[in-house]
C-alpha cells in the first residue's frame, strides 16, 4: 500500500510590527444570535438573584432557596374600643428576661375613669355652666319685650291710672294724686314667671311731643327696686334727662318677678303740676 499523504504544514504566523494592519479574517454574521428563552427561576430571598428552578442554593450568595413557608408577621393591633375591656393572656417570657414593671395605669381603666371625672365635674359645675350659657345668649341675642301681668301705683290722679304707663302709647300717662314733685310715689309691675331683665325704656312727662312735654312735671331721679323669686331685693338709681322721647337704661337682673320705680326728684315741679310718666317698657328674656 502506498504511504498516506502528508498534511500540508500551516504557514507560521509572520512577525508583525506595531501599527501593521491586521489580517483579514473574514466578516462575521450580520446579526447577533438570539438569546435563549428566559425561563422563570427562583429569586433569592436575600440578594434577589435569579436562579434556575431546580437549584437549592443561590448561585450568587449561597443562601438556601427553599426556606419553607414565610413566617407570619406581627399581629395587627386591635381598635381602642376592643382593648378597653380585653383581658390579655400572660405571655411566656423568654429565657433570661424579666417581666416589665408598669409605671402607668392600664389603658382600659384610663378612659372610664376620665369619663367619670368629667361627668362629676359637669354635675358640680352645672349652675356655672347654666350661667355661662345664659350669658352667651344675652350677648349674642336681642332682648325680647317683657309684658307685666299686673301693674299698680302708689296713687293716681283722676284719669291717669298706672295702666296708662304700660299700654304702649306715649300720649297717655300716669300721675300721682298729689301735685308737686311726687317724691316717694311709685309704679310697680309684676311678672307671672321669673324674667331676666336687661334693658329699661322710660318716656318721661305727659307726652313725647315737645309742645306737651313741659306742661307737667317730669321725673329726674328714679330708684329701681328688683325683687326676685326668693324675695331678695336689688336697688339701682336712674338719672333721666329733661327731654321728650324714650330714654334707654341697661338694668340687669336675674329671676325677677317684681319691679318698682320710685320717684326721688322731678323737673319743673310746681303746686299746680303733677309728675308724669308716659311709658315704661322692659326688655330681657323669660
TrEMBL record:
<protein>
    <recommendedName>
        <fullName>NAD glycohydrolase translocation F5/8 type C domain-containing protein</fullName>
    </recommendedName>
</protein>
<feature type="domain" description="NAD glycohydrolase translocation F5/8 type C">
    <location>
        <begin position="156"/>
        <end position="282"/>
    </location>
</feature>
<feature type="region of interest" description="Disordered">
    <location>
        <begin position="1"/>
        <end position="52"/>
    </location>
</feature>
<dbReference type="InterPro" id="IPR008979">
    <property type="entry name" value="Galactose-bd-like_sf"/>
</dbReference>
<dbReference type="Pfam" id="PF25302">
    <property type="entry name" value="NADase_transloc"/>
</dbReference>
<dbReference type="InterPro" id="IPR057561">
    <property type="entry name" value="NADase_transloc"/>
</dbReference>
Amino acid at each position: 500500500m502506498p504511504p498516506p499523504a502528508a498534511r500540508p504544514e500551516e504557514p507560521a504566523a509572520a512577525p508583525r510590527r506595531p501599527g501593521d494592519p491586521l489580517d483579514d479574517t473574514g466578516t462575521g454574521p450580520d446579526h447577533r444570535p438570539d438569546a435563549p428563552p428566559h425561563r422563570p427561576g427562583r429569586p433569592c430571598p436575600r440578594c434577589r438573584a435569579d436562579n434556575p428552578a431546580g437549584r437549592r442554593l443561590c448561585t450568587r450568595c449561597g443562601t438556601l432557596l427553599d426556606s419553607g413557608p414565610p413566617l407570619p408577621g406581627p399581629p395587627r393591633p386591635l381598635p381602642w374600643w376592643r382593648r378597653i375591656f380585653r383581658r390579655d393572656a400572660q405571655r411566656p417570657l423568654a429565657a433570661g428576661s424579666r417581666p416589665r414593671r408598669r409605671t402607668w395605669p392600664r389603658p382600659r381603666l384610663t378612659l372610664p375613669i376620665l369619663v367619670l371625672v368629667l361627668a362629676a365635674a359637669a354635675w358640680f359645675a352645672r349652675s356655672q355652666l347654666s350661667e355661662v350659657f345664659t350669658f352667651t345668649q344675652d350677648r349674642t341675642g336681642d332682648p325680647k319685650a317683657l309684658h307685666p301681668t299686673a301693674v299698680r301705683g302708689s296713687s293716681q290722679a283722676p284719669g291717669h291710672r298706672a295702666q296708662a304707663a304700660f299700654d304702649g302709647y306715649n300720649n297717655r300717662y300716669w300721675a300721682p294724686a298729689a301735685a308737686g314733685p311726687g317724691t316717694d310715689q311709685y309704679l310697680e309691675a309684676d311678672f307671672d314667671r321669673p324674667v331676666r331683665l336687661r334693658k329699661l325704656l322710660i318716656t318721661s312727662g305727659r307726652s313725647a311731643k315737645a309742645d306737651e312735654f313741659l306742661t307737667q312735671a317730669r321725673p329726674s331721679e328714679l330708684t329701681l327696686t328688683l325683687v326676685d323669686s326668693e324675695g331678695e331685693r336689688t336697688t339701682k338709681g336712674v338719672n333721666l334727662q329733661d327731654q321728650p322721647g324714650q330714654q334707654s337704661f341697661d338694668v340687669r337682673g336675674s329671676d325677677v318677678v317684681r319691679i318698682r320705680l320710685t320717684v326721688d326728684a322731678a323737673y319743673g315741679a310746681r303746686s299746680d303740676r303733677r309728675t308724669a310718666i308716659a311709658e315704661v317698657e322692659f326688655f330681657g328674656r323669660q
